[in-house]
Amino acid sequence: MPDKGCYEKQCCFNQDLTFTKLHKEMADRNLECGNVQMRTLNMIGEEGLYTNLALLLSDQCEHTLKIAVFQGTDDVIFRNHQEFSGSLLTQLEDGYNFIDKNIAVKSTIEGLRREDVRDYPLAAVREALLNAIIHRDYSFTGSTLVNIYDDRIEFVSLGGLVSGLSMEAVMMGVSQSRNANLANVFYRLKLVESYGTGIKRIMALYKESQKQANFVSAQGAFKTTIFNLNFKDKQDNVANYQPDAEKDIILKLAKNKKTITRKDVEEALSVGSTKAYALLTEMCKKGMLTVRKAGNKTHYMPT
Fold this sequence. Notes:
The protein is of the alpha+beta class. The chain has helices at about 20-30, 35-40, 50-55, 90-100, 120-135, 165-170, 180-190, 200-205, 230-240, 245-255, 260-270, 275-285; strands at about 65-70, 80-85, 105-110, 115-120, 145-150, 150-160, 215-220, 220-225, 290-295, 295-300. About 40% of the residues lie in helices and about 20% in strands. The relative contact order is 0.10.
């Protein structure tokens, strides 16, 4: 059993490694990545052999990132899931893009102005993913996990806190990196600004929200949970809407946009297609809207 505390420094069993993604990232920042630099970064050890740090950054990295998207607030029904492999740098980029595509934007209209608010601060998503990748214990073979629910995203990494470090100390801003050399590479690539600030950044981004970001450490695992900033609003809207209020919102939307579709109503009211169609049909019958069809598309306009 390897010494978990120095996994990244140990000699890698696989010496047939390639570094396509690492070389690209270094070149994009005008940094050299030859043998000298790899020795400086501790990717090559004293024996002249690749270390496990090199393995993590190589195209042959044995660890993966798994992201699952669930319907609702539990893990009963899958909407989508994907596993990302390759260099940790590749996993970071591809994983972040996948998460970004699977979180929504809430749009509100005030007068002629439209305001878009993402369900999650992207900076918090980025920091949580970086923390899960950089600080996990790679002597464990399991995958880093990200679970996306309607109301939250959970980032689960193996290893828990570094021995001797408490959650209370972490919340105070104390930092002790398990993978100091890996963190140094990410720092040189300007993917992190400084060591040990990720949790504080996430907390700051949720400072004004009703649900604060949550951090839990258990034996062998660490979980970061960030919450959907729009989820409560959606629930309240569905609960509080009355038929007349719904029609007023649709009519205001139609006047602002000049023409709307059923999809616009679904997004504005957070309702399904059946409810949206029923409201639009009723409003057309009452003379509040007129309907126009162009091919397969149906548009509604204020009378």
